[in-house]
Predict the 3D structure of the following.
Amino acid sequence: MSDFATLSSVTHSSSTLSAELTNTLRDAIITGEIAQGTKLSETKMAKEFDVSRGPLREALRRLEGMNLIMHIPQQGARVVTLSRELILQLYDTREALESKAVALAAVNMTSQEIDELHREIDAQSKQMRENSGAFVPAESDYRFHEMVVRGSKNKVIERALIHEIYNLIKMFRYQNEFANTSSTNSLIEHRQIVYAIEQRDPILAEVTMKRHIVHARERIERRMSAN
Amino acid sequence: MSDFATLSSVTHSSSTLSAELTNTLRDAIITGEIAQGTKLSETKMAKEFDVSRGPLREALRRLEGMNLIMHIPQQGARVVTLSRELILQLYDTREALESKAVALAAVNMTSQEIDELHREIDAQSKQMRENSGAFVPAESDYRFHEMVVRGSKNKVIERALIHEIYNLIKMFRYQNEFANTSSTNSLIEHRQIVYAIEQRDPILAEVTMKRHIVHARERIERRMSAN
DNA sequence: GAATCCATAAATGTTGACATTTTTCTCAAA
DNA sequence: TTTGAGAAAAATGTCAACATTTATGGATTC
């Protein structure tokens, strides 16, 4: 555990202390600064972050809602452990939600939003030409997928993915280099997805997205030994 | 609002006060005892339930994670309002998640679990023959769908549905008689779903479940005027 | 009569202390 | 050495009071 109060200084100020703590702890968990499986002692953390236990406990309840920690009454909270099983289940869930999201996006996105998608994958293309390494940068990949999800205009799907799935996937990718967004294939698939949206073809969009995520899942399953 | 502490006496005791409060408030919101859009005043509720604001606030953070309330910093929490838009988005989300769940269930369910599914729909069949009213009882319908979801063995999908989707759908159905599980068609569709699982045919199971939920969605969309 | 400002009231955010449960450590006995 | 009981320590659960922000209401002005 050591001293994970270090990140707190960098955190942008939110409206309430509890909300700030939530963001700080979320980031510390995603990056692994607080390791998987760590017991989150309220008393120790309250001292480290120099806050009282009230707001801290509220932040823990929120992180529980994000699937980032598990809480057992009378025993406390632990950071989630990313087992091979959980990762694959996350990708199955993502496949279901995000393929539906892109089908809706094909109907509901504005042409302006589609333009933004183009700009994002053009940037990806440029970065991959410049850097010899054939990887879509993680941040850009997240932006792309979040733009699609927001384009669905479905707040329930949006919240489920962004609030409860993506954080865990980010955590996994941040802490496992081999999980990174991979080859030029991803960029090609991104182009296919945008094409389907542009054609206002929800079925094509859904199939294309499904394949994109299944590919990612397969890549991960292959590279992951037992865990 | 009036006196929504009445239900608290019926609540089964959980391990912590905060967890009890969460369940009590969840039920009160689902039944409409606390009406949609109601401002949830911490001070008033603390008095009514005779608890301090600490555990109450933690319960509110959890209900927020269940999509049952919305919280605005420095302003407080309100019970969610079930707009026509939100209901349809819930059903779209459910369609995506539950059709994936049943596909997984077709692969992962034990034959013992499938037997339980049979018992449940047999009970539904019996109840519909006895009561002239051609409705699948809501509680039995929930049990059926939850058994399927658990059968997927995917904890992420299970939590998303049970924790964040079903509560809102229960709330909608409880507060709108017209939203009830409808005709004999539902029972037939349940039988088709069990058949597909029994055949270990994930694709058939997925298509069948998707149709089942789309039908429910269409029924609701028809019966709902603007909102 | 409507709008604005200020004082008051009330609500949310935060804190530190108390209560109860769980964990840890010590010491004795098998 | 290992096991078990019991006391001590530490952790989680809960409460009541304080701080700060937001909402309310009446008086004043236009």
Q: What stands out?
A: The longest strand of chain B covers residues 69-72.
